[in-house]
Amino acid sequence: MLTQLDEINTLCDEAQCRRDGMCACTFTQKIPSDKLIQMVFTNIGNGSGWSHPIHLHGHTFNVIKMGLGSYTPDTGILVAPNQDIICTDGRKFCSTMRWKDSSRNNGNVTGMNEDPPQKDTIVLPTGLFIYILLAFCPIHLRLPKTVN
Q1: Does a structural domain hold residue 6?
Q2: 144 occurs within a structural domain
Q3: 32-84 pLDDT, tens digit each
Q4: C-alpha–C-alpha distance, residues 38 and 29, integer Å
Q5: Where in this chain does the record put each Plastocyanin-like domain (predicted)?
Q6: Number of domains the chain is built from
Q7: DSSP assignments along 81-144, one per residue
Q8: Does residue 108 lie in a domain region?
Q9: Boundaries of domain holding 64
Q10: For residue 125, is it within any domain?
Q11: 73-99 pLDDT, tens per residue?
């Protein structure tokens, strides 16, 4: 298991990573300390046929929203992925995407959990997205109540 940046031998930057399909390299992002970071993880588009675990080493995050797909009521089989995110790359791998409702841009999240669970690992099933808040400082996150 790789845990240190200097152990990764497949690093690339945004310009090197193919944006029309699946990346063949490891893209990293430095996250500043003492900041509240919002991230969206997706498991939609071509190539998303199985659940994917997400784990942050040494950090926890709050799951503020999950976007579910459509499932058959009797078997629970995925019928259609979540429709809130639109894949914009040509081959529909969702390596680039946008919100269907542009009012969600810049972190404007509606319908978020008022008391979000704190996790260090979550499983992201096919057809879903999760929206998390990550605090890299010693604070307990309490989100304000929102009106939808």
Answers
A1: no
A2: no
A3: 777 788 888 999 888 788 888 988 877 889 999 999 899 899 998 889 999 99
A4: 13
A5: 21-129
A6: 1
A7: --SSEEE-STTS--SSEEESSGGGGGG---S--SSPPEESEEEE-TT-EEEEEEE-SS----PP
A8: yes
A9: 32-135
A10: yes
A11: 999 888 999 999 998 887 788 878 899
